[in-house]
Amino acid sequence: MNVPIEGILIDRIVVVDRITRRRNNTFHATSSLPGHTIQLTVEGAAHHESEGRAFETEPGLIAWFCHDEEVRIRITKVPWSFLTVNFIAPHLPPPPADQSIRRAASDTRLLFENLLQAWRDNPANSLMRHIRVKARLLDLIADVLPSEFTPFHADPVAQIWWGLEAELRDRLHEHIDLKFLRQLSRRSVRTLYLACHRAAGMAPLKRIKTIRLSMARGLILHSPLSISEVAYRVGYDRVQELCRDYRRHIGLTPLQDRSAGPDYRRAKLRYRR
């Protein structure tokens, strides 16, 4: 007798889209959301560096990112186009790091395009749209979950920091200083500086601020929380300090950024001009 299935796997689907970049450039990006992002490259190519990994995207390659992972991207062949879905699933573990970049199966693109079509089917009955989008996302996840090893370049020193950072993302509301980091990691300050520089190219406390601002931006763009609530959740005692750092980091105040909407929407508007 089969065991009953309980619990909700997908809490929220934030966006499904096809995004195209038409210029050879280099930029930093995050999912801007504390959740999962699955991308399938369909055209062009780009070099990615993310959490100790370095890999090239090309048509037919799947990349699975998790927890507003910061990615350095250099587009190497234009137009670079990819299908993407961003969703919240706290009980869904991400693929192992060595299997989060892999070759898609033969029908993965069709599953992705079916998901995108269901997402865009606005005239449909809202209940049926909800059911169809979630069903197609679950089909895609079942197809994309890795079953084979895909090699990539991994720096063991950088992995010290990425392991620590995974813990820190759940504790951003706490006071974090070098003493806290040393106690949590059981590593020396010198080792932490070396690991963080190898992983992210910056000092530990600067990296923590970057994570906080990235998480704050995800909440600003994709949640109804007030700015003061966002500030508390990412570890700022005063909302004024968050607004100051946010503007320096993003170039907009939190309210201006919320009004403008996510980057993928702004990019689409730029390309239409």
Distance between the termini: 59 Å
What's the SSE pattern?
EEEEEEEHHHHHHHHHH
Which residues form runs of ≥5 with pLDDT under 50?
Answer: 267-273
Q: Radius of gyration, rounded? A: 19 Å
The portion of residues forming beta strands comes to: 15-25%
Total of helices: 10
Annotated CATH topology of the largest domain: Jelly Rolls
**Biggest beta sheet summary:** 7 strands, antiparallel
SS content category: alpha+beta
- State the CATH class of the largest domain: Mainly Beta
User: In the CATH hierarchy, what is the architecture of the largest domain at level 2?
Assistant: Sandwich
Shape: globular
- The total tally of domains equals 2
Question: How many beta-strand elements?
Answer: 7
CATH superfamily of the largest domain: Regulatory protein AraC
Mean pLDDT across the residues is 82
Structural account:
The protein has about 270 residues and is an alpha+beta fold. It has two domains: about 130 residues, Regulatory protein AraC (Jelly Rolls); about 110 residues, Homeodomain-like (Arc Repressor Mutant, subunit A), CATH 1.10.10.60. It is about 45% helix and about 20% strand. The chain has ten helices and seven strands. Strands 1, 2, 3, 4, 5, 6 and 7 form a seven-stranded antiparallel β-sheet that branches. A hairpin with a 2-residue loop joins strand 3 and strand 4. The longest helix is centred in the middle third of the chain and has 19 residues. The C terminus is likely disordered.
